[in-house]
Write a structure and sequence with these properties.
Elements: E1 5-10, E2 16-22, E3 27-32, H1 37-49, E4 52-58, H2 80-96, E5 103-104, H3 110-113, E6 118-121, H4 127-130, H5 135-146, E7 151-154, E8 178-179, H6 184-195, H7 202-208, E9 212-213, H8 217-220, E10 225-227, E11 230-233, H9 239-251
Parallel strand pairs: 1-4, 1-6, 4-5, 6-7, 7-11, 8-9
Antiparallel strand pairs: 2-3, 10-11
Helix pairs in contact: 1-2, 1-9
């Protein structure tokens, strides 16, 4: 029998994220969110087509919720069939791969981690709520980092990299890495047109920890960044290229 090809997909349990400084009184509210459908579905379809079996994991093992913005027809530029394809892929994962009941991070032993070829963190604003300071996630990502196993993250997914400061030697594992995430400029645009409040900035947070952030017109339009074992992208436009490169890196 051929060895099984396995990939770990890191999800958030959150269905909202903190939105600061809202309204006339400047209070913090919970803004509905979740995973960004396209950023999960496009790489995931590629992984399945390439013969990989996904295992979903989250801090507490709750069913992941999609970001409402990401399941609107506008997110698909009116392409109803593409939207239905991606929604049915998630339904398939619920039936076949335990998507409704992800593994808790704490249940995934260091021994089990050896069986995975790579790790993937999709975006959406949900990671801002519960992935950045999770010590168990820091342990998991630290393993892939030390073993130089392919690590893919898109949009707000790279926020999860901050968790490496809470595990092991308490050092940010990706100092000096070229990384791309949802940019401060993109977030500021969202703050103005959609949220009417302030959001934690992924690009700034990673840069402050010593990452070499690659952002600009190219990444905004879907170009990806590769440095050592990590491939990262800024937004849904980079989802296809990210998935392809991640699969290529795992097969190398």
């Amino acid at each position: 029998m051929a060895p099984t090809k396995k990939v770990l997909i890191i999800m958030s349990d959150a269905s909202s994220f903190p939105l600061y400084n809202t309204g006339s009184d400047g209070k913090t509210i919970s803004q509905p969110s979740g995973y960004f459908l396209m950023e999960l579905a496009k790489p995931l379809q590629g992984l399945l087509d390439a013969g990989y079996t996904p295992t979903f994991a989250s801090p507490l093992g709750k069913e992941p919720t999609p970001d409402p913005l990401s399941v609107s027809l506008a997110a698909f530029a009116g392409n109803y069939f593409e939207k239905q394809r991606e929604l049915s892929l998630v339904e398939q994962m619920k039936r076949e791969n335990g998507f409704s009941r992800p593994r808790r991070f704490s249940e995934i032993t260091d021994e089990e981690l050896k069986s995975y070829d790579g790790v993937f963190i999709p975006g959406g604003h949900a990671p801002l709520s519960d992935l950045g300071d999770n010590a168990e996630l820091g342990r998991i990502l630290g393993y892939f980092h030390r073993e130089k196993k392919p690590t893919a993250a898109i949009c707000h997914g790279p926020w999860a990299f901050l968790s490496t400061k809470y595990a092991g030697d308490k050092e940010f594992a990706y100092k000096g890495y070229k990384l791309t995430s949802w940019s401060d400029a993109e977030e500021k645009f969202m703050e103005t047109v959609a949220f009417r409040g302030e959001v934690d900035k992924v690009e700034s947070a990673l840069r402050e920890e010593g990452a070499d952030m690659v952002e600009g017109v190219g990444t905004a339009l879907g170009s990806i960044t590769v440095d050592r074992e990590v491939v990262s992208a800024a937004n849904p436009m980079g989802a296809d290229a990210l998935g392809k490169k991640f699969i290529e890196m795992m097969g190398a």
